[in-house]
Design goal:
Largest interface: A-B, 46 and 53 residues
Oligomer: heterodimer
Shape of chain B: globular
CATH architecture of one domain in chain A: Orthogonal Bundle
Largest sheet of chain A: none
Structural class of chain A: mainly alpha
Strand content of chain A: under 5%
CATH superfamily of one domain in chain A: MetI-like
Helix content of chain B: over 70%
Structural class of chain B: mainly alpha
Distance between the termini of chain A: 11 Å
Largest sheet of chain B: none
Radius of gyration of chain A: 22 Å
Distance between the termini of chain B: 8 Å
CATH class of one domain in chain A: Mainly Alpha
Helix content of chain A: over 70%
């Protein structure tokens, strides 16, 4: 999909897909390594270097306490990515369990799971996030639980539909008559279909989870000020916007967007790679 | 047709009642398990100034001394009568807070909703009609970027450029300071509305553009479009006469089904622009522990989203001639 926007058209689809995946992985590696190298430098205050606009030495400028914004941004995006990834992984696991339960444990469980998914999707996402975060008492824990507990319905439906469809497939119905046990069927017939769906679903959850975590933090429900996630940095910068400190908001936001885009590209390209139908295009 | 419509609405109402009952129960359970003490959250920084006796008075007044089950029974009985209780931070009935705030938000949401719908639809048509052209690539790049951009960041950028640097638009609120809402003129209110609405539209365009583009590409590859081209029809002609009607319906459905996203976007945009709508009320209720208001907004927004989805279903029946014929055939 997006790979076609950037790469030379003489490359075939597979090469473009792999190139896009590679670039995204390198990007994340750079962010994590740089955040690790910078360490806690973002907390060093230098009152002589306050409110400096971006320059060659400090590409992101400094804030009202003279802290280097590049270091703060890197640290912030690492925290945001960490929170988003944890929450999305939990959410995908919930989706996997509920989806499997709905498809395998009979009608009552199926109805219950379907109803829960409907109820969770009936409220606007952000309102649900605020409610859940309030129920958990806020903080980093609140954000992770809120995001994890609100993003599972879509993937649950996909997994449930996939397993239901597989169970009615002829080759799965035939397997017991060939003397195959339920464990063998699950491993050889269900897993190869469900695992890619799960992986792609997980990857495509990341962008949503990161954005929603940032939004929740921005509103003041998330991380405390001593855990400077991107949402915290942007909420703080609101106070300095009218003073003209534009760099406090522009650069961290830009890095956030690029990270979210990179996860989106990664997810879509892994899906293209795993799905033989789209690869042949 | 008439009978069908009544039946349809009855079934939908039943579903809504069940849904609201379920959501109400779940949210009450969630909220009553919150470790946030409502009295602490309400009093805030003045916590050291109130005596234990005053605390007891507040607790008794809010009914927090009763066990959760009794509280739920009372709340549910009130809810059945349409009474959502009294908001603790605004000190007036939740229903009137929501009504007032929603009217303010409705201006913003309606403007953003119609603008993003129209713009997104046109962009999607252009991109889909000229697949892989520079225009298509540009539009897709824009839509993908906007889908990855936080609403509040776009709001902050616009605020910085148009309010702080250029000074064209006011920095915050929904009407000029010092005036009451009735004194503000329509022009002033629109002036204050402009930036939040543009923020929501810029983001809202992404989904509808990508969706419409996808449907347009499909329609351009369909037999009827190829046949029209074989007869010498131009691309513009095909889009206007063949594609438009087929693409409009799914776009309309998507736009009505996106009310949840719109509401969420409004919460963020209202926070950036200090726009006193329902979104800001949600944030305040959550931060200052106003449980009745928070629950009320959860239920209200559920009904809001449900209405959008129901309208989408209804429109499908009214607008799509195939659905009408199908119904006529079965009746």
């Amino acid at each position: 999909m997006t790979a076609r926007l950037f790469f030379p058209s003489q490359w075939d689809r597979r090469t473009r897909t792999l190139a896009a995946i590679g670039i995204c992985l390198v990007f994340f590696a750079v962010i994590f390594i740089a955040a690790w190298l910078y360490g806690d430098q973002g907390q060093v205050t230098a009152l002589k270097l306050r409110k400096l606009p971006p320059s060659w030495e400090r590409p992101f400028g400094t804030d009202w306490l003279g802290r280097d914004m590049l270091a703060r941004t890197l640290k912030g995006i690492r925290i945001s990515l960490g929170v988003g990834l944890t929450a999305a992984t939990c959410s995908a696991c919930i989706a996997l369990l509920l989806g499997l339960a709905a498809a395998l444990l009979g009608r009552t469980v199926d109805r219950l799971v379907t109803w829960l998914a409907d109820a969770a999707m009936a409220t606007p996402h952000l309102v649900l996030l605020i409610l859940l975060s309030f129920a958990c008492g806020g903080g980093a824990k609140g954000v992770i639980i809120a995001v994890a507990a609100s993003h599972w319905p879509a993937l649950t439906r996909i997994i449930r539909a996939e397993v239901l469809q597989l169970r009615s497939a002829d080759y799965v119905k035939l397997a017991p008559q060939l003397g195959k046990g339920p464990y063998w069927i699950a491993r050889r017939h269900l897993l190869p279909h469900v695992a890619p769906q799960f992986l792609v679903g997980l990857l495509l959850l990341f962008p949503h989870a990161i954005l929603h975590a940032a939004g929740l933090t921005f509103l003041g429900f998330g991380m405390p000020p001593h855990m400077p996630a991107i949402g915290v940095l942007l909420a703080e910068s609101m106070r300095y916007l009218s003073m003209g400190l534009w760099w406090l908001a522009v650069a961290p936001g830009f890095i956030l967007i690029v990270s979210v885009l990179a996860f989106d590209v990664l997810g879509n390209n892994v899906r293209a790679l795993l799905d033989p139908k789209t690869l042949r295009e | 047709m008439h009978l069908n419509l009544t039946k349809f609405l009855l079934a939908k109402t039943m579903r809504l009642v069940l849904l609201v009952a379920g959501v109400a129960t779940l949210s009450f359970v969630l909220v009553s398990h919150s470790p946030i003490d409502p009295v602490d959250a309400y009093v805030g920084a003045a916590i050291m100034k109130i005596s234990p006796e005053q605390r007891q008075v507040i607790i008794a007044r809010w009914g927090l001394d009763r066990p959760p089950l009794t509280r739920f029974a009372r709340w549910a009985a009130q809810l059945a009568r349409g009474d959502l209780g009294v908001s603790t931070i605004f000190n007036e009935p939740v229903t009137s807070v929501i009504a007032k705030r929603f009217v303010t938000s409705l201006w913003l949401m309606a403007l953003a909703w119609s603008f993003s719908g129209l713009l997104g639809f046109v962009l999607g048509l252009i991109a889909g009609a000229r697949e892989d052209s520079p225009a298509d690539r540009l539009i897709r790049l824009y839509a993908y970027t906007m889908a990855a951009t936080p609403t509040f960041w776009v709001g902050m950028m616009l605020l910085m450029i148009f309010s702080v640097y250029l000074g064209w638009t006011p920095v915050c609120s929904a009407w000029p300071p010092g005036l009451s809402i009735e004194q503000a003129t329509l022009g002033q209110r629109l002036h204050h509305l402009l930036l939040p609405a543009v923020t929501l539209s810029l983001i809202g365009v992404a989904q509808i553009t990508l969706h419409t583009r996808q449907k347009t590409v499909e329609a351009m590859h369909s037999d009827y479009a190829i046949f029209a081209r074989a007869q010498g029809e131009s691309t513009v002609g095909i889009v206007c006469r063949q594609v438009l009607r087929n693409v409009a319906l799914p776009a309309l459905t998507l736009q009505f089904a996106s009310l949840g996203e719109l509401f969420g976007g409004a919460v963020l945009a209202e926070q950036v622009f200090s726009y006193p709508g329902l979104g800001r009320a949600t944030v305040e209720a959550g931060i200052r522990g106003d449980v009745p208001l928070l629950l009320g907004i959860v239920l209200f927004s559920t009904v809001f989203v449900f209405t959008g989805n129901t309208l989408a279903d209804l429109l499908y029946q009214v607008v799509d001639p195939r659905m009408r014929e199908g119904q006529g055939g079965t009746a």
